[in-house]
Write a structure and sequence with these properties.
alpha+beta, 14-stranded mixed beta sheet, 51% helix
Length: 792
């Protein structure tokens, strides 16, 4: 019996090649898109889930409240963790990590190791990073001990055993011993680094660090003992802070609010202090899109299958007359659906394997290494295909098996109004989804274009940036390249727009004449920073070599800092006193607000001071002519003056735009999945148009005999579908507006959703619908009316 079912199913599918191809293609595209989204969402949700003790690991967050603002932070003062473990028996262990941007020298070769962290010796006790060589309890215990990843070990030592070998670290070329080799950290972890340096190395270089309660620089993780309540522990923190730092807090007017954040909550729910960030909103959005695509694919399956019901009516009637029961017909038709789904499953495997490298590239990370590496995904995909076949095949099977044989064989077969209404409702639903995605795609594109084109308040064109890492020869290097013909301007600073800024404890005289305490962003700059970046002065003056006190007693602030202090006009702030990091002086100028951070953040108060010793980043404006020759000249001077460091550079415009890489990837993924949803919707519309043309075959023949033109027939068959598209547009518009309005809220600077976006989206949907319907309508209109009449 099974063999007979399969034989009949294959014959029916082969006899209707076009319908079968469209059905399989729609399912294949839908399954492939959903599978990719499933992998992406699963990967995003899997960050740090591989740690065995993940449910007991928490990051300590520390929000700092000053008289003027509250600063949310994911870093803590250095003494927090050691004192917490002594005071609270609920804490099993702690570990601190801190960025370590290191120069690493091995033999005559130097590397700038950006993926490095200082870490406490307990790191391998708290986290489950696999140590291939070395003792996890002692690998990071001693001063000048380092642990390398497999990749870093091969980079520095080739195939030789690195254990016990020595490399030189930082500008002081400190001999450091390799005490461990760890497996490359997985992609789905926040702490993805190639080198770990013992925390004792850092504390030796910075004496008194573990007593510096005002020095925020450690990311602190606590491992709580089993059955410990994190909330109960947090309730004890205020007393802890008061015991250890109460007097200093009151003196500085800076108050801490300390909390615990679960490890697995950090990646998707943090916009500050995390080494790697994701977006829970994006995960939700892609999950909804996956469900949409799956739903649309199932709708198509139903519509395209029932569209063939007219063609198979006589077959069903004859089979019932010769004794076929409804249960046998149900099994037959559901079997055909399953066969289609299994074909789509096989094609999905092929398509997935072909597109996986491109998808990993688009996502910006290795989401999957392939089906062979993760066979469980094949099983999941197979079960999904079977489930779709069962669920989507039930309705068509019930419809096809319910035909009355006498009426069918007499040619009086017609479908019920309920079935027609259901099919139209399904098409409205899938086109409403498609129009929503079209609107979303346009808004995402407009927001990305807005962020790239917005006036940032400074010039970032033709600016080449080199981080000298504080090398003593940096001033000599700057002077040397300033003489190159292709270099028009140079300036040194502690940071650049789009990069990190220091937070500085600052006291500034406010409108009431009081010294107001705030933690303000700070740039150390030289005399040329403001003019080179074309930052506009709105009050006072910039730094000048004509004033000897500018190096010690002068500060420039931005407009937001002026507002923070309560001044109504920038000129009112000029001449006011400040104290910052041991320096005192007056505000000499106010610059117009410029975006020194991402457009996802509001512009914050900024201070700038002349501090030659704190300037490590060199910004170079290069002429647009012989760029290759200019770069060669810069590199030649670097190798002459700073030979111990590898030469590297980047352009500021690309560096600044790198902040939006996550949003750009989201936009590209959104666009591609929206395109697939629209394609599948078109297949569904084609199915309904085909069904309608088959149902009205006799009517079309009579109209043509009576003189109706091809245009008349096309209009006749199209108008009902265009009504469905219009209804879809009415449903999609408020849904899309609300969804995209919520998405735009993550940006501090964003576009307004214009009315024309909805109009354009509606027109696009209409054009797509007309193009899809016209094929089947024209085909029906060109059919021989004699054959149409005979068919009836």
């Amino acid at each position: 019996m099974l063999k007979n079912y399969l034989k009949i199913a294959w014959r029916n599918l082969w006899r209707n090649k076009i319908f079968s191809l469209i059905n399989v293609l729609g399912l294949t595209v839908g399954l492939t898109a959903c599978f990719f989204i499933f992998l992406y969402v699963h990967f995003e949700l899997s960050y740090d889930q591989f740690h065995a003790k993940k449910d007991r690991i928490y990051r300590v967050t520390c929000d700092v409240k000053t008289p003027s603002e509250t600063i949310k932070g994911g870093i803590t003062p250095w003494p927090f963790a050691p004192n917490m473990q002594r005071d609270f028996p609920e804490i099993d262990a702690f570990t601190r990590v801190s960025n370590a941007n290191l120069l690493v020298k091995k033999g005559n070769i130097s590397f700038q190791e950006d993926q490095a962290l200082f870490a406490d010796s307990s790191l391998f006790r708290v986290f489950d990073f696999k140590l291939l060589k070395g003792d996890p309890n002692t690998a990071l215990r001693d001063v000048n001990s380092i642990v390398l990843s497999e990749t870093a070990a091969k980079k520095y030592f080739g195939n030789a055993d690195p254990m016990g070998e020595t490399v030189l670290l930082t500008g002081d070329l400190i001999p450091s011993t390799v005490t461990g080799v760890m497996a490359d950290m997985p992609e789905n972890t926040q702490l993805k680094v190639n080198m770990l340096v013992s925390m004792s190395t850092l504390t030796k270089l910075n004496a008194g660090l573990d007593k510096a309660w005002g020095n925020f620089g450690a990311t602190t993780f606590l491992l709580l003992k089993p059955n410990t309540s994190a909330d109960a522990l947090v309730a004890k923190f205020p007393d802890f802070i008061e015991r250890h730092n109460g007097d200093e807090r009151r003196k500085s007017k800076m108050f801490y609010t300390v909390a615990l954040q679960p490890l697995t909550d950090i990646y998707l729910n943090t916009t500050y202090g995390a080494y790697v960030n994701g977006s829970r909103n994006n995960v939700y959005i892609f999950t909804v899109i996956a469900l949409f695509i799956l739903f649309i694919a199932a709708i198509n399956f139903v519509n395209l299958t029932t569209a063939r019901s007219v063609e198979r009516a006589k077959e069903i009637g004859i089979r019932k007359v010769v004794g076929a029961t409804r249960q046998e017909l149900l099994r037959q038709f559901i079997g055909e659906c399953l066969l289609l789904c299994l074909m789509a499953f096989v094609l999905t495997l092929v398509l997935f394997s072909a597109l996986l490298p491109a998808f990993n590239l688009l996502a910006g990370k290795t989401i999957s290494h392939g089906l062979i590496a993760e066979p469980v995904y094949i099983v999941i995909l197979l079960l999904a295909a079977i489930l779709i076949g069962l669920l989507a095949g039930i309705y068509p099977a019930l419809v096809l098996s319910s035909f009355k044989p006498i009426l069918v064989l007499k040619g009086r077969f017609s479908t019920s109004s309920k079935g027609t209404l259901l099919r139209k409702g399904l098409v409205v639903t899938q086109f409403a989804i498609s129009i929503t995605l079209i609107i979303g795609t346009i808004i995402v594109y407009l927001q990305m274009r807005y962020m790239h084109n917005k006036d940032l308040g400074f010039s970032k064109e033709q600016v080449l940036v080199i981080d000298t890492h504080g090398d003593p020869a940096r001033d000599a290097f700057k002077n040397a390249i300033s003489a190159l013909p292709g270099v028009t301007h140079t300036t040194m600073s502690s940071g650049i727009p789009g990069g990190n800024t220091e937070g500085a404890y600052t006291e500034i005289q406010n409108k009431q004449g009081e010294m107001q305490v705030a933690n303000l962003d700070l740039y150390f700059v030289d005399y040329d920073f403001i003019p080179q970046y074309k930052i506009k002065l709105v009050a006072g003056r910039g730094f000048s070599r004509d004033f000897g006190t500018d190096t010690t007693h002068a500060m420039v602030v931005n407009e937001t800092a002026v507002k923070l202090l309560g001044y109504s006009k920038p000129t009112d702030a000029v001449g006011r006193s400040f104290r910052q990091w041991g320096r005192e002086g007056t505000i000499i100028g106010v610059v117009k607000d410029f975006h020194f951070r991402s457009l996802q953040e509001n512009i914050k108060p900024l201070t700038m001071r002349i501090e030659p010793g704190g300037c490590e980043v060199l910004s170079i404006v290069v002429a647009p002519g012989d760029l290759r020759g200019t770069l060669a000249g810069i590199e030649s001077n670097w190798k002459t003056l700073i030979p111990n460091r590898p030469f590297s550079y980047y352009f500021l415009d690309k560096f600044f735009d790198r902040q939006y890489r996550t949003e750009e990837r989201f936009g590209k993924l959104f666009f591609n999945f929206a395109l697939l949803a629209i394609l599948i919707s078109c297949l569904g519309l084609l199915g309904l148009a085909s069904y309608s043309a088959l149902q009205r075959t006799r009517e079309i023949g009579i109209r043509k005999v009576m003189g109706a033109s091809v245009t008349d027939i096309v209009n006749l068959l199209s108008k009902d579908f265009l009504k469905l598209v219009f209804l879809s547009f009415l449903i999609a518009t408020p849904l899309a507006w609300y969804s995209m309005h919520k998405w735009l809220e993550i940006f501090a600077y964003r576009i307004s959703i214009a009315w024309w976006v909805f109009l354009v989206s509606g027109v696009i949907a209409l054009v797509i619908a007309i193009a899809t319907i016209s094929y089947q309508a024209i085909k029906a209109a060109l059919a021989d009316p004699v054959k149409s009449m005979r068919a009836e």
